[in-house]
Design a protein that fits this description.
globular, mainly alpha, 82% helix
Length: 219
């Protein structure tokens, strides 16, 4: 029963991660293709998204392999914490790409920019999956339709319910704490195994605290 609950929770985490972190990539695709003729636009979006997805698959399995090395999970957890804070403080920051009037230029632009922007999504999915191949495949499969069709719907949802962004940022902070606690460095080299629950709570709390302070400082 506990295993089933843990699996269901991981599925929910991955769905949430994809909705929050694939939105900018979906907007990128729409922007890159907006100058193409209507007949070419859908094909450009499809080919560009598939090319980006193939690279994302490669990156994900590389990340999964690398995460087994000491201190890599800790570094990944700190990076996820920074991503979560950015998500809570500035959603509109990095989905910018120049429109391309030529078909293959647009496709290449989509693939290159999506590859550069996918680290947060790849790292979060790999961390939430906790080594489960089924969950990794589910997360990658879910990202494909979001990339191709989901930008407008995601933005409307997040604009209508901004609390979802904060909740998603807290979730990423939680996953970051869990990732740091599971780093093999601690028991192997220090003889101490941190509490996953305590570090997960700490990760979510730090993200919320820093985000709130950053928002107040901007006023």
């Amino acid at each position: 029963m506990e295993t089933e609950i843990a699996f269901a929770w991981a599925v929910l985490e991955i769905v949430w991660i994809n909705l929050l972190l694939s939105g900018d990539n979906a907007i990128l695709i729409a922007l890159a293709c907006r100058e193409l003729p209507i007949r070419q636009r859908r094909l450009g979006i499809f080919i560009g998204a598939m090319g980006g997805l193939i690279l994302r698959i490669v990156f994900t399995f590389v990340v999964i392999e690398v995460l087994s090395a000491p201190l890599v999970k800790t570094a990944g957890g700190l990076l996820l914490t920074a991503i979560a804070i950015r998500l809570a403080t500035d959603r509109a920051g990095h989905a910018q790409v120049e429109a391309k009037p030529r078909f293959w230029n647009a496709v290449i632009s989509i693939i290159a920019a999506d590859a550069a922007m996918s680290l947060d999504n790849v790292l979060a999915i790999a961390a939430a999956a906790e080594g489960s191949l089924r969950l990794v495949i589910f997360g990658l499969a879910l990202s494909a339709p979001i990339l191709m069709f989901g930008a407008t719907a995601i933005l409307r949802l997040l604009d209508r319910f901004p609390l979802l962004i904060w909740a998603g940022a807290a979730l990423l902070g939680w996953i970051a704490g869990d990732l740091i606690a599971s780093d093999p460095f601690w028991p192997r080299f220090t003889g101490f195994k941190p509490s996953m629950f305590a570090l997960s709570v700490a990760g979510a709390s730090i993200v919320m605290l820093v985000a709130v302070l950053a928002r107040q400082a901007e006023r």
